[in-house]
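Page header: ASSEMBLY MODEL / two components / 577 residues total.
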Amino acid sequence: MKFKDKDIVHIAELARLDLSSQELKAYRSQLSDITSYIDQIAKIDLSNYQEKAESKLHNVWREDKVEDWLQEEKLAALEQGERKQGLIKVKRVL
Amino acid sequence: MTIQEARVELDKGRMSSEELTRAYLDRIQSLDATLHACLLVDEKGAIEAAKAADKRLQAGETGGLLGIPYLAKDNMMTKGLRTTAASKILENYIAPYDATAIKRLRRAGAVLLGKTNLDEFAHGASTENSAYGPTKNPWDTSRVPGGSSGGSAAAVAAGLAPFALGSDTGGSIRQPAGFCNLIGLKPSYGRVSRFGLLSMTSSTDIIGPLTKNSADAAMVLNVIAGQDRFDASSLPEREEDYSAHLDKGIKGMKIGVVSSHWDKHLDPDIREAKEQALSSFRRLGAEIMEIELPYSAYGVAVYYVITPSEISSNLARFDGVGWGLSNQETEGLLEFYKANRGHGFGAEVKRRIMLGTFALSSGYADAYYKRAQAVRDLIKEDYERVFKEVDLIISPTSPHPAFKLGEKIDDPLAMYLEDIYLSGPALAGLPAMSVPAGFLEREGKELPFAWQLIAPYGKDEVVLQAAAAWEKTNDYINTHPQL
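Prediction written out in full:
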């Protein structure tokens, strides 16, 4: 699959990646090469293929019981970002 | 020292865990500046754990991994310790909890020495994609140790720890083990909990051991394997004792070989070793049969659709909110996300995220992701069909020995093709193990190569059994790199 510049810009936007013009050029050629290799799967005959409904594990449940998070672990997990008054700070959305 | 040897010393009281731990910490201190296998050494934590193990030993407790030092790949959560996934985006991230595998090892009294280097987020086959610099192969420091668990492989090969944990998604335990003359076990999918393993490809990710021999691998699997309520994909049943299978031998075992695995794409020295290896297996009582796995030829293509797709989803959580690299200078949320991710992730990570985003995007998801999953089913079916006739499959682990640092870094597709024998078993979730198979000479240096043993899904004990039998026919595991 041959990507155009605008394809790569679009994918980078979807993936929320800020890329330099050098990176855009490099990825355009690399992704084109890689997908050309992958494109061999397009030729495989899947006319007799049926998606299976089975799987080894099915509906692995547990009791819907509230378990309190260890305070110390909770703080360790949440305190690594920007916080204010117990809430996680996020950039202006609108 | 192997785990078994250390076990004897500890149980007989000839050595304490603290002495053993200090000896490994010293060895890391003297050798790791050259190898760069470790990203973090936790001397304080290790000594504390060793002292606690010694108390248990003195109280009469013996066996298992009590008091045994080890290293863990830096994509596993280790409470209180920096965990980076070898990425800049997690440069200062402190793990708030232990991965289940780490928790089980702690309970068993094993001693965590530190964290090892890897390709960033486990994306790679050489450890050159680490944001903190590559690791060198102890057998030839101008060569890669393999990847993505290259730090773990180099460390165990250089004797920096009796064992290390790695993770395997498409070859990341097996390939570096093969390049470093180690046993590298990728357990069946679901055999070991993924809780606390930084997610890469959720449908194939698994933690496993890198050790000097198969008996050691069984000892580690005994501790880390088992159902975990925090991982809904973990298997409910397991063998009670994997070590019990080691002496069973392989008399009457049917072993399959695929002729295309041994053709002109394989290094001629490795190809030459094939017949002698098969003769050894025959002398042990096994029967060799030719088998076909036609859809495995598409293994790498399928893997590099599914893996980047799952990666693009799993790495969406790295957005700078709550943890990780966070550029406060940006205006607005979108710019914030793009700056953090664009600058925090390395080239290969971004490449895979882009590939995956594309493969899942509107207009392409059917042709790429959905089709790849269908072919994956066909690959799985090939193995199921073949395992009705044979008990085990042998292939080379890699098509060549360890390559030079820098040799493949500019050719992403060439790097992906490193997984040529390894992606099939990963996609099918099969237990697969790399075992030392001999040495060949390149530029005056002896380089190891390896065979891959593959068993039916869930039959991890069968690969251990076969590896143990193979080890009895040679002395490769007792050869060490000169450092």
